[in-house]
Design a protein that fits this description.
By secondary structure, the protein is of the alpha+beta class. It has two domains: 100 residues, Aminopeptidase, CATH 3.40.630; 144 residues, Aminopeptidase, CATH 3.40.630.30. The protein is built from nine helices and 14 strands. The longest helix has 15 residues.
Length: 285
């Protein structure tokens, strides 16, 4: 068996999508983002061949905090269990290190035990667990009074609120943008404040922004902390505001163990998925 890991080509789409389209019961997002990923020169898209046949893929993206984010790992069912996902991961991490990356993150569904074993072999360890909540049918949200966008002169105060919160500790010190996690440093927070992505009230703080892939935008509450009453107000405001574009989903990311989960459920939100965040700082192959 001859195995080759190489950069993706346009001609890989047809053989890869033949099996990828069946992942997650036919709801895999990869077909909708393939062209976007292939054209993105700021990221690395790898394909693994077996005897000349493309049978797997994976991607490395570079986050604003300097971390390499691994995503999109897929291997044909007939070729699983042969270490091919590991081959792709090691190649992507090697490329990342050549570009100065020293730490990598990825996420996996909490029930995907085989993936957990694989990433452990690559030197990753669990950092945090987070649940994704979506509004149930019929749930209503409206803009709230006494909620405002954090201003530049509030950045230090907001940062202290964040790092002192239970959600920051339970969540591994990150915020979620789509399904990737970036460190909530003061510099990153400053950029989010400048972009108008930080909401405040007297008792709570939230990061809320538009996200999306493959032409499907969504409104997301990427991080939230503070009193339950304040958090409820911020979520209502974030999901109740009128959008300039039509959003397909509304998502809230909350770490396991947060006292705010009960409040989200009380708002008529349901858990749609549960994720594990893994991180590696190993600089060796």
């Amino acid at each position: 068996m001859k195995v080759v890991v190489r950069r993706a080509r346009a001609s890989d789409r047809a053989p890869l999508m033949k099996f990828v389209r069946n992942v997650w019961g036919g709801h895999d997002y990869i077909p909708s983002v393939w062209e976007e990923w292939l054209a993105d020169r700021r990221a690395i898209l790898d394909v693994v061949e077996v005897d000349g046949k493309p049978v797997g893929m994976g991607r490395l993206r570079f986050l604003d905090d300097g971390v390499g984010w691994l995503e999109g790992a897929r291997v044909h069912p007939d070729y699983r269990g042969r270490g091919l996902a590991g081959r792709i991961g090691r190649d992507l991490m090697r490329t990342g290190r050549e570009k100065g990356v020293t730490s990598f993150r990825l996420t996996s569904g909490s029930r995907n035990k085989s993936a957990h074993r694989q990433v452990t072999k690559l030197g990753f360890s669990e950092v945090a667990r987070v649940s994704v909540y979506e509004p149930s049918e019929g749930a209503r949200f409206d803009p709230q009074t006494k909620v405002w966008q954090a201003a530049e002169n509030e950045t230090d105060e907001v940062f202290n609120m964040i790092v002192g919160s239970q959600e920051y500790r339970l969540g591994g010190g990150v915020f979620w943008d789509g399904f990737s996690a970036t460190e909530l440093s003061l510099g990153i927070l400053t950029n989010l404040v400048d972009r108008g992505s930080v909401l405040r009230c007297d008792e709570a703080v939230a990061i809320s922004k538009l996200g999306g892939e493959g032409g499907s935008p969504w409104r997301q509450v990427c991080f939230i902390a503070g009193s339950p009453e304040g958090a409820v107000r911020l979520v209502k405001h974030a999901f109740g505001k009128k959008e300039a574009v039509r959003t397909h989903w509304r998502l809230a990311f909350v770490p396991h163990g947060s006292r705010l989960i009960r409040e989200l459920r009380g708002l008529g939100m349901r858990r749609s998925s549960s994720l594990i965040l893994f991180e590696s700082a190993d600089s060796k192959d």
